[in-house]
Amino acid sequence: MRIVLDTNVLLSGLLTPSGPPGSIVRLITAGAVRICYDARILVEYRQVLLRPAFPFTEIQVDSLLDQLQADGDLVTALPLVERLPDPEDEVFLEVALSGNAQFLVTGNLKHYPVQNRQGARVESPRAFLELFRTGGGLRQ
């Protein structure tokens, strides 16, 4: 299964490993789920994780990003047909659509209005985990 992971879910998963985002990060690192990404997503992950407010070292962040690249799928994303309210969120939807990801997982569903999703399945971490566990409409 292929997913796109919004930065907020990755960050939450690393900061709070016991919650739904942490479970998703574990699924990715265990190889049960493949992450789709492009260079813009990796840059954002790195910039956010290295903010002084967070406890991650450059070595830790680089190691994580290396693993995501090695185990994930690099996508060449096409621009969206319909824009999102916040252009900074567009990269995640572009990668999800261009990479044929089954889900875009985000903690900010309101950033991806239904009318702008262009057929992509956008789920919260909790909803995604429930679908993953039950096999609800998932294709491999």
Explain this structure:
The chain is an alpha/beta fold and 140 residues long. Helix content is 45%, strand content 11%. The protein has helices at 7-15, 20-29, 39-49, 58-71, 90-98, 125-134; strands spanning 2-5, 34-37, 73-74, 103-105, 122-123. A five-stranded parallel beta sheet has the order 3-2-1-4-5, with helices on both faces. The protein is globular, with a radius of gyration of 14 Å.
Short structural description:
The protein is built from six helices and five strands; from the N terminus they run E-H-H-E-H-H-E-H-E-E-H. The chain is of the alpha/beta class and 140 residues long. The chain is globular, with a radius of gyration of 14 Å.
Supply database-style keywords.
140 residues, 6 helices, single chain, alpha/beta, five-stranded parallel β-sheet
Estimated share of beta-strand residues: 5-15%
Unreliable spans are none
Broad structural category: alpha/beta
**Main beta sheet strand tally, sense and closure:** 5 strands, parallel
Give me the side-by-side strand order of the main sheet.
3-2-1-4-5
CA gyration radius, whole angstroms = 14 Å
- Total number of helices: 6
Cα(first) to Cα(last) distance is 5 Å
What is the averaged pLDDT score?
Answer: 95
- Oligomer classification: single chain
Give the fraction of residues assigned to helices. 40-55%
How would you sum up the global shape? globular
Helix-strand pattern: EHHEHHEHEEH
Q: Quick one: how many beta strands?
A: 5
